[in-house]
Amino acid sequence: MIDVDLSTISVLYVEDEDAIRESLSRFLKRRVGELFEARNGKEGLELYLEHRPDIVITDVQMPVMNGLMMAEKIREDDEEKPIIITTAFNDEEYFLKAIDIGVDKYIKKPINNKILLASISKIAQLIDAQRQIAERNSFIQTILDESPNFILISNGEKMVYMNRSMLKFFGVKSLDEFHEHHESLDDFIIRKDQADKRKFCQIIRESVGDQEHVIYMTDAKELKVDASSYMVKIREMPDSSSYLVIFTDVTLLENERKKYQELSVKDPLTDVFNRGKFNEMLESEIE
User: Fold this and answer.
1) Is the pTM of this model over 0.85?
2) Is the preceding omega at residue 110 within 30 degrees of 0, hence cis?
3) What does each C-alpha distance from 175 to 9, 167, 170, 222 come to in angstroms?
4) With contact defined as beta carbons under 8 Å apart, do 135 and 183 qualify?
5) CA distance 84 to 123
6) Dist. CA 3–CA 6, nearest whole Å
7) 40 pLDDT above the threshold of 90
8) Is the dihedral of CA 18, 19, 20, 25 positive or negative?
9) Cα torsion 138, 139, 145, 149: sign
């Protein structure tokens, strides 16, 4: 039997025969974290929609609504919900229907508790792995969203992710909302080199690596006005055909650089270019 902690797992158990339900419920309550009990498919469906248990265990033949009908409606709500079917009948039609619905396990009555527990443990192991993945993804998502840098992911043709800082910059709540009005970042990028006609996605594909690029971009409110400067790093994501693009706002640094560059070639009193700038321009004209 798979050794897994079932104390975090919730189970919905649906069985119309009181003696069987009470017996198996006592067995399950000692092992799982939370157990919900129902006497027919209608009650079971109502409990499922209210509590969203991790695993559903149900008999097939029951009054009001049978177990397969209930399982089908649950799968309409959640295609991945683990469902275990129990039955005392060898009816081929039920068996084929269970396969069609995609139930995870089909157990014959009388139920062998060890077999049932092994099935629950196996499913619980997968649920635990999915929870760990979801927790890590949530942690990563929080880091990305709290970053002051703009972060986007592109598949080389279009953007598939924007972090919260970037969405806020464009005044939208989601990437879908952004795409409702704009196809790409090209609507916001200011071209300092008019000869460069490349689309932003093309720049991404051609600029992967350690090289950094400075681009000038405006937000939706100040389109084409007062562009900010961004240092852009592009990395190809491992085991993927996607690209990670990080924008760091260097507007203040760029302004400071331009300021000191100007001071180096102009007289601060007269605002006239100095001899060094004169010689530079003279050499350029001679060439």
Assistant:
1) no
2) yes
3) 34, 7, 10, 20
4) no
5) 10
6) 9
7) yes
8) positive
9) negative
Alpha-carbon gap, residue 61 to 160, rounded angstroms: 46
Distance CA 117, CA 27 (A): 10
pLDDT in tens, 41-69: 999 999 999 999 999 999 988 888 988 89
Q: Which residues contact 198 (CB under 8 A, 6 or more apart)?
A: 206
Q: Which residue has the tokens 């300092």?
A: 192
Distance CA 62, CA 54 (A): 22
Q: Do the Cβ atoms of 220 and 171 come closer than 8 Å?
A: yes
d(CA 20, CA 25): 8
Contact 124, 9 (CB under 8 A): yes
Give pLDDT tens digits for 112-145. Answer: 899 999 999 999 999 999 889 988 888 888 888 8
Asked if 54 and 127 touch (Cβ cutoff 8 Å), the reply is yes
Q: Which two tokens stand for residue 99?
A: 């396969």
Pairing type for strands 228-236 and 159-162 reads unpaired
Q: Cα dist. 207→156, 185, 212, 269 in Å?
A: 11, 16, 8, 43
